[in-house]
Amino acid sequence: MAAAAAAAVGGPQPPQPELPAPGLALDKAATAAHLKAALSRPDNRAGAEELQALLERVLSAERPLAAAADGEEAAAAGGGGGPGAAEEEALEWCKCLLAGGGGYDEFCAAVRAYDPAALCGLVWTANFVAYRCRTCGISPCMSLCAECFHQGDHTGHDFNMFRSQAGGACDCGDSNVMRESGFCKRHQIKSSSNIPCVPKDLLMMSEFVLPRFIFCLIQYLREGYNEPAADVPSEKDLNKVLQLLEPQISFLEDLTKMGGAMRSVLTQVLTNQQNYKDLTSGLGENACAKKSHEKYLIALKSSGLTYPEDKLVYGLQEPSAGTSTLAVQGFAGATGTLGQLDSSDEEDQDGSQGLGKRKRVKLSSSTKDQSIMDVLKHKSFLEELLFWTIKYEFPQKMVTFLLNMLPDQEYKVAFTKTFVQHYAFIMKTLKKSHESDTMSNRIVHISVQLFSNEELARQVTEECQLLDIMVTVLLYMMESCLIKSELQDEENSLHVVVNCGEALLKNNTYWPLVSDFINILSHQSVAKRFLEDHGLLVTWMNFVSFFQGMNLNKRELNEHVEFESQTYYAAFAAELEACAQPMWGLLSHCKVRETQEYTRNVVRYCLEALQDWFDAINFVDEPAPNQVTFHLPLHRYYAMFLSKAVKCQELDLDSVLPDQEMLMKLMIHPLQIQASLAEIHSNMWVRNGLQIKGQAMTYVQSHFCNSMIDPDIYLLQVCASRLDPDYFISSVFERFKVVDLLTMASQHQNTVLDAEHERSMLEGALTFLVILLSLRLHLGMSDDEILRAEMVAQLCMNDRTHSSLLDLIPENPNPKSGIIPGSYSFESVLSAVADFKAPVFEPGGSMQQGMYTPKAEVWDQEFDPVMVILRTVYRRDVQSAMDRYTAFLKQSGKFPGNPWPPYKKRTPLHPSYKGLMRLLHCKTLHIVLFTLLYKILMDHQNLSEHVLCMVLYLIELGLENSAEEESDEEASVCGPERCHDSWFPGSNLVSNMRHFINYVRVRVPETAPEVKRDSPASTSSDSLSSLHNSGTAQVFSLVAERRKKFQEIINRSSSEANQVVRPKTSNKWSAPGSAPQLTTAILEIKESILSLLIKLHHKLSGKQNSYYPPWLDDIEILIQPEIPKYNHGDGITAVERILLKAALQSRMNKRIIEEICRKVTPPVPPKKITAAEKKTLDKEERRQKARERQQKLLAEFASRQKSFMETAMDVDSPENDIPMEIATAEPQVSEAVYDCVICGQSGPSSEDRPTGLVVLLQASSVLGQCRDNIEPKKLPITEEEQIYPWDTCAAVHDVRLSLLQRYFKDSSCLLAVSIGWEGGVYVQTCGHTLHIDCHKSYMESLRNDQVLQGFSVDKGEFTCPLCRQFANSVLPCYPGSNVESNLWQRPSNKSIQDLIKEVEELQGRPGAFPVSISSETNLSKEMESVMKDIKNTTQKKYRDYSKTPGSPDNDFLFMYSVARTNLELELIHRGGNLCSGGASTAGKRSCLNQLFHVLALHMRLYSIDSEYNPWRKLTQLVEEMNSQQGNEEQQPEVPILYHDVTSLLLIQILMMPQPLRKDHFACIVKVLFTLLYTQALVALSVKCNEEDRLAWKHTGALKKNACDAEKSYEVLLSFVISELSKGKLYHEEGAQECAMVSPIAWSPESMEKYLQDFCLPFLRITSLLQHHLFGEDLPSCQEEEEFSVLSSCLGLLPTFYQTKHPFISASCLDWPVPAFDIISQWCFEINSFTERHAEQGKALLIQESRWKLPHLLQLPENYNTIFQYYHRKTCSVCTKVPKDPAVCLVCGTFVCLKGLCCKQQSYCECVLHSQNCGAGTGIFLLINASVIIIIRGHRFCLWGSVYLDAHGEEDRDLRRGKPLYICKERYKVLEQQWISHTFDHINKRWGPHYNGL
């Protein structure tokens, strides 16, 4: 054989095609064995050549894609049958050769044995469920597969489950990424030691075969790639190639799974450069190889890459082929290649370039070489494989193969280097890709595995310049979408920014690269290199400056914008991801003193970049009006590094600050943003659309705030602490455009702001100042204090769930910063500031989550309104916080009224920022405060309480932070040179407060009141005003003052900047000549800040002289200033607190306050009432009147509402509801009166105009779910546990009916049992009534109403017009009295025999009914239509049980079963027994009475033949017994002992004319009880064994002649036994018999108990029925006496019965005919049946009567057990793993939600199941979402989850993936709603499902 094989291989001739297939297989194995032997020889050259030739032929690359086109080649290939066959053939050969002649599977097993499985390395793709444990992870990206996670021990760890987005790999066993303690059992052992060495010959063949195989794959890839034409996307072609290669790649993937041994062979093959060179050089004579090589070169070129040898193509300098292609080749190359880069970017022609020429100037100066971007040289298979993987846009299979190899360390390093080498190419491919999302995920899938490992990242950084490559690639990427910036100076700006509208930003295409960059910066060693490399920092700042000023907003002044651009999403995401996150990454490594140098570097280059930016946008001193950008990443880099420097590195702040001029420029743009925020909230930007509000919200939103607003405010604080305070304050008011408002005059003109915006802008400016001066986030708070402040602010706005808190608290965005969400400090702070409120239920059924709410002491001491204002996204949250604060104060009795925001003490300032407090002590601010206080006191327009509040807050801040105690009291009298130019003598607030200001000169419009009044006094005041001349103008020269200061600073810094003041902007501010109607007036003021405050106190309290200095009474106050009574309160309290502080700070102030109080001061200065003031007074009066009117109206409303509520009584919650009394209570009224809730009239229900009850009819299978064992069923969570529905009530009843139908006459069977256990119709009402004609018009109006509220009017659905409860029909009320008149109630003295006759006669009369059916009245029509509704409520299969379809017996059965269903369900709602008595909740709203009338009316249309009427059999003896056996061929009737007694009761009652008489009812019950008791005896006799039977037969026979024999169960039992012994019932005493017999020994007590239990269900139903028909209350009792109480209530117990004896059930018997005769007659029927069918006869006698209450399945404690079993479980119908698996909580069936795979007749599986399992009601647990969904008929709703995490929260869609535990209370509520059929009423959000669930 070997010779033959050698011949076959040796010659060049092809293998004989005619060889049969099995021969071929044999041949392969043999050839392989032969070659293996040849290669094992020491001299294996010949063998090697032979193998090469064979492989050459088998794996010939000429075959693949050409084959399809060229028939002859395929034939020559010898595989026949097209390319597919050839491919398989080649694979078969490879497998054979690898195995060296053995079986391939054995070979695999052999190799696996040598696997040193130290790493798991399982690779998964998107949507896989994996775990992440933060306790065990070293890298934040660590993840584990489910198996490793469950095998390891993570109890008590901080872990979560997640659905992988991009795919990933399991890190178990890799100690670089996770701590070893978290490894699972499999990967804990460092197993390399004990694994034997791999035998050389095992893998020898692999080493020969695999290089050829991989080369063949590469050739396929080369062949298949065609450069796409410019316009046609070629994904289709690429996918085709990939499909063809599927088997090959899968084969490689299988090899990687063989374990470490095979992986190391593959690594050798993939990285061996010699192999690659030999095979792919494309030299040699093989034409095919040449062609392939050419294709490869073309592909390289088309990618804009050069192959180093082709130096002619791009004229690069000599390629230095020896060195690494990435070695810097000098910088001459860079400029030369700039031009050609454009041409290679195809999408540069997309037309959006008109916006401004792309600017690539910056790059030419970069020191990095062009080669990073466009030189690639492949030296190994691995490199070219990756190249094609990228070219083909990362096919999933290839990615998985490349990742599966990663556990091999050598491969990991090689692959990482290759990946880095191709980085630029990846970026280019990504930019062009049409599927950039998928591709991004695949790239990150790879890169996160490589770069999360610090050791590896460091190595690649050192050896391959990873950082240079990344930064350059990012820079290049952004280059493609730059536009000219329009910020500041549109025409001459040289600055370029990214265009947020481009796909690159809009679709986040850049995120894979940025995410890699963030990932490597999280490694300390890599970040250090970055921070040390000046060139890199320069390039990076360049990159960041592309984002500086992007997405510029220009305020629309005229029209509303046509198109609201949504680019702001892209802009915010880009700044956060591309700028802020790398910044946080770098900051996390600058934590200690030793890292000062890094900070200096960053700050230095940041300032340079900023300077360049100011120059580029041509910025001098004024920002351009009406434009704002929220994006200043350079400012924020600078700010954050400053903050870090001071906080952690102990750097001197001044050493890293620039000069004053630069500081002034730095503050302008952040300040502009703050002013714009106020403008946006004042609705000044409404014409820009909603998106501008969106930007303002995003800017402060929790994920962005600490990268956006916090750094901005910090930077402003730094600037404020170093700049001149007067300059800063005046800048603020100028930016906020409220300078003109700050005048003493009562009227003014604002040139830049409309009057309606003034108030909110002023509020904005003051609030900003308060925030600026109070916020300490970066000015000295520790991390824990910050966390606490943030948490308190969020909790004060609203109670929060744990997860929303985690989300709302801005964590440091860099994952390695150590403040991990859920970290230790988070939990400890949370428990310190908040109390947990466990999840509760509200009666409306809305589910609450577990919430955290602030502790009382937090409200008392830590509530900080400033922090709340800073952190609120919606303004309403501030209000909410204040409301909650108010509620707390009221509740704790601290303050009754409406409090003002409390003043909170601040943490001390860090010494570096002390200068900030100078703002509080500058004259400009004091003038502003004085002016505002005065204006508020004088009631000028546009001032609000909020303004006053902020003014007082600022004063208080100033007092708290006063620089120094006044040294001498006379300091206020200072040199004249300081006094003349200024309002205030000094700059200290404490002393300025008492300084009196007498006269002020103001400019006012001529119409102002001040002017008129001024004329007579002008002469006298001239002399005065000349004194104050310069002072009076002070306020209005805010702007001039600012300019002056600016000029000084500039002159100081540069001489040539003299021309900076631009006239263009300055003439805006009212220059003297510009407003001719302005005139000058002089006001007499004579106030100081202190006096104004005291007057304000009077004004606020509404009393004269209300302020009295407290220290006059209690000198103690001055010694211990912290008085709790001042902590909370309104404006009055605030003023008192400030005055007290002022007095404390200086004795002078104290004296002056006392003086002011001595003078009796009227609250308003004594002037004539001006027009403006008159107006305000009138206004007050008018308001007062309006208020009174309103009160009156409200009172009227309230009384109306009260009367309505008395009738409608809290109709919202179905539980605690007192329904409207359907009937009026006076018994003397003969007819019931009903109120119609639509027309409001009340009256009786008549035949012509019937009234109806609003009812909801629904099919229900709840009864059918009762089981007979107490143990509840569990939801299956393993394959073994399954649920079989044999023991449910529905199944048992079904079996019984079909058994009866087999042997007895059909029409008789249908009277012997009830149906409706499944699909029974349940009727419930809200208790409201309406006229049926009113209802019809109501339905019409609903039909015409376009807004459909989740229900379908066409199906007759509506909501009750009064209580809005869901309903779908109206049940007519029967005319006549509701309270049966005494006539019916009177106990009659007739004998039972007479009554029996009467009953029989009444039943015989057809339709003897007060309403004759022949004459169609409205009432009878309605009765018929409601009957139709009832029938249509349930499906046909639940109505038709008859063998002859449509038989009347069927309707008959259906109708009395409806009554049965409703009674049984009511019994269940009462807990299964009647011990509680009374009219319980279910009884209260019952509509059974009306329902009975409707059913009875219809039942009497079908009269039963008198000879079949069971009543006869019960009450009469039949003469001859044998007559029945005459006709054998006809099926017999059902023996009376097989009848269901409760069904008989309902039939008898519904056959009687209504209303029924009480004594007839009692008679029927007595008769039926005898039958029931006999059935109990028979069942008992069947249950016990032969000996017992004989004993009982004997004992009973002895007592038979006693006087009360008929009432002794022993006698009766012995008689039954003796009668039945005549038949064959007891005969079959076989082995199977013993199984049924209960092993207990029967004692008289246990027998009595058995008999009572047997009869109880009947008694309960009967008592309920009596309660509804005759309105008698049910007595309550103990469980053990239930039987006796019910039987006496039903009149079964004779009244003279003595209670002394133990109770005996038999004493209730009252036999209508001699007991022994009738019993023997009944037994005879049984005997004649058991003659033939003894087995069935016995089965039918034993009825299970004790059903337990229905329950939903019991769920496991931990959700994970459900999830792990079901989320991978295959569906039994379609055998696929469903996308949305669900499980039914009633029966445990596993279904596909929305799965088209299991659709049947347009119904999806869940809907179908809800019909089959619950007759239209389904309760499903959605496995992947942990929520429960309810299907009710054609609607569905999301109910919520019964699984909550440790913090009492749902986790919908398992987004957080925390462990979830069952919430038993919730599950109980769900079960309760199911049993009580209240889903429709309690859940509000229903929608149609269109059968698609």
Strand content: 5-15%
Mass-distribution shape = flat
Count of strand segments? 28
What spatial order of strands do you see in the largest sheet? 22-21-23-24-25-28
Query: Biggest sheet, open or closed, and with what strands and sense?
Result: 6 strands, antiparallel
Alpha-beta classification: alpha+beta
Rg value: 47 Å
Determine the fraction of residues in helical runs and give it as a percent range.
40-55%
- Termini gap: 64 Å
Number of helices: 78
**What is the mean pLDDT?**
78
* Low-pLDDT windows of residues: 1-25, 61-83, 309-368, 814-822, 965-981, 1012-1036, 1054-1076, 1162-1170, 1207-1229, 1378-1384, 1407-1414, 1521-1528, ...
Secondary-structure blueprint:
Blueprint (H helix, E strand, L loop, with lengths): L1 H9 L10 H20 L4 H14 L5 H6 L1 H7 L4 H18 L4 H9 L10 E2 L4 E5 L10 E2 H6 L7 E5 L4 E2 L15 H4 L11 H25 L10 H22 L3 H12 L1 H8 L6 H16 L8 H4 L17 H13 L16 H4 L6 H4 L6 H11 L4 H9 L4 H13 L1 H10 L3 H16 L2 H11 L1 H14 L2 E3 L11 E3 L4 H4 L4 H11 L2 H9 L1 H12 L7 E2 L12 H21 L8 H21 L10 E2 L4 H15 L12 H22 L8 H11 L8 H14 L2 H11 L19 H20 L8 H15 L4 H7 L15 H10 E4 L13 E4 L1 H7 L2 H7 L3 H17 L31 H15 L7 H16 L15 H4 L9 H4 L4 E9 L3 H6 L3 H15 L5 H16 L9 H4 L11 E10 L1 H13 L29 H15 L1 H12 L12 H38 L25 E2 L6 E2 L7 E10 L28 H15 L2 H7 L7 E12 H13 L13 E2 L6 E2 L1 E4 L9 H4 L6 H13 ...
Antiparallel strand pairs: 1-5, 2-3, 2-4, 6-7, 8-9, 10-11, 12-13, 14-15, 16-17, 16-20, 18-19, 21-22, 21-23, 23-24, 24-25, 25-28, 26-27
Helix pairs in contact: 1-2, 2-3, 2-6, 3-10, 6-7, 6-10, 6-11, 10-11, 10-12, 10-19, 11-20, 20-23, 22-23, 22-25, 23-27, 25-29, 27-30, 29-31, 30-32, 31-32, 32-35, 33-35, 33-37, 36-50, 37-45, 38-40, 38-42, 44-45, 44-52, 45-53, 52-53, 53-54, 60-67, 61-64, 62-64, 62-66, 62-71, 66-67, 67-69, 67-71, ...
